[in-house]
Amino acid sequence: MDQDITLDLQRAARLGFDEAIYCSGKTVGHISRILDQAQDKALPLLLTRLHQTQFTELPEHHRRAIDFEPVSRTGFFGAPRPLQGEPRIAVVTAGTSDVFVSREAARTLRYYGMPNVEITDVGVAGLWRLLARLDEIRHMPVVIVVAGMDAALPTVLGGLYPGALIAVPTSVGYGVASGGQAALHSMLSSCVPGVAVMNIDNGYGAACAALRIVRAFSQQAEAPKKSS
Length: 228
What we know:
The protein is of the alpha/beta class. It is built from nine helices and nine strands.
């Protein structure tokens, strides 16, 4: 029965975002029936938190239709948007242990056709690594910064970079890191003005926030052309 599944068919028209299916906690049967409905309606979907076991157990015809990446646990059901222009968003990651979150952000951006630059392993324990990439980062109007443990990277980068900065705490860290709580509190209490903070491990949400900002820039740039 599909009575417990109601796809949001108007989300793209309302928000400019396709329906995103959060797969964690769903049975393979639920996911398969969601994909059946989407296929019937020719509805593309972004699948998040799709675990390898779930993907492997899906019917073969659904597996063939999904571009699945195990690191980010994301899947594209249907073709992603064509890439549009030059990169305007950087996804900056403190350490390789945080990549499962930064890749979720980068894959979400790719799904929507937004080119991005991924800069990994530039945490403040080796500050020279960040400084070596700083000029590259400064060329981007929006930066997503992903960090766990003490999550100092967004504050350090926020003091050097003037654009929109979206910070994402990760659940990476020992003991008192408390599954990302320490990182979250560090970001929320940053002394740098204007840092926007996402929920723990929420790379998808950070990408959507970045897309909203870039789209707002684009609309402002196009407004004078229309008025003239």
